[in-house]
Amino acid sequence: MVSLGTGGVFAGAGAGAGGGPGDPAAGGPLADGPLAGGPLAGDLLVGAAEGDDAAVFRLDAARALVLTTDFFTPIVDDAHDWGRIAAANALSDVYAMGGRPLIALNLTAWPGETLPLEILAEVLRGGASVAAEAGCLVVGGHTIDDPEPKYGMAVTGLADPSRLLTISRARPGDTLVLTKPIGTGVVATAHKRGAAPEAVLAAAVASMTTLNAAAAQAALAAGVVAATDVTGFSLLGHLHRMLRASGCSATVDAAAVPLLPGALELTTAGYVSGGTRNNMSYLEPWVCIDASVPEPVAVLLQDAQTSGGLLLATPSPGALCAELDARGALAAVVGRLQAGSPGHIAVRP
Q1: What is the C-alpha to C-alpha distance for residues 50 and 46, in angstroms, rounded to an integer?
Q2: Please, what are the averages of pLDDT over each run of 10 residues along the chain (349 residues)?
Q3: What 3 state SS string does 228-296 have?
Q4: What is the SS3 assignment for 318?
Q5: Domains of the chain
Q6: Rounded to two decimals, what is the model's pTM?
Q7: Cα–Cα distance, 281 to 284 (Å, whole number)
């Protein structure tokens, strides 16, 4: 193992440390300004104003480009695993739009005077291994000098413009299906403080390095049109974005949400990241959590994730779950949508 020493050197929190609600770089308050578009905006099917997981630009009636980028500081000690996690996280946005990754560029910030380039090489090898698994070519990239290391990818994918998955097409009556357990944020926070058992960390790494390719394929096969991936804004945060974009509300069954091994115990012990606390503060006016829901579970529903699963809204949960099962992907029915104040979520036991 090539170690980065994240427990004692670096203080980042993965995707949880990145842009949450209103992130200016993702659009946010600038969506109606310099990021709004130009003469080609008619072919920009999804852009900054929509606040979706990636941008989508139509090439012709059958093809659209899906463009996204993501990078973050180390969340594990093993350099190869960090590269794998960061790559899977960046590729996930393409899958969340119903696309398949084609090419990627490495984005790297590196403290060359304090960390050997051999460690960076191991990070890049990790990223390349996951990109290869996805059938995505890594064709170059760029590195800058930075006192704190960061790594990720800019990814371009391809999708059928008539079969996009977006956050704005969920409808009342849809069932919510989640394809990965949650809890990566609390496990990563505990790991930085030397408190995550080896088996717990290994389970989190396995989840974070699993591509959302099978889940996206299942969603398309089942006719799903509404989806998002669960990353730094948490399960409830990303659901909130979907609900606001779609004009409806939702009920989440807390007991039905799958948790990573050890996540509940570590949350109870207080290993909660700053990103998760920011999520909780932002979501407070939008989320009503039943008093009988255990507090650690309520926290985990707002835990800042890295490389989480897809959250899918479907009127045909049986067909979707069958497609997910056939591909070996998790199919957890976690709630349903209803008419109501857009963006509001009720969490029941």
Answers
A1: 6
A2: 54 47 52 50 89 95 98 97 98 98 98 96 98 98 97 98 97 98 98 98 98 98 98 98 98 98 98 98 98 98 98 98 98 98 98
A3: EECCCCHHHHHHHHHHHHHCCEEEEEHHHCCECCCHHHHHHCCCCCHHHHHHHHHHCCCEEECCCCCHH
A4: helix
A5: 14-163 (3.30.1330.10), 175-348 (3.90.650.10)
A6: 0.92
A7: 5
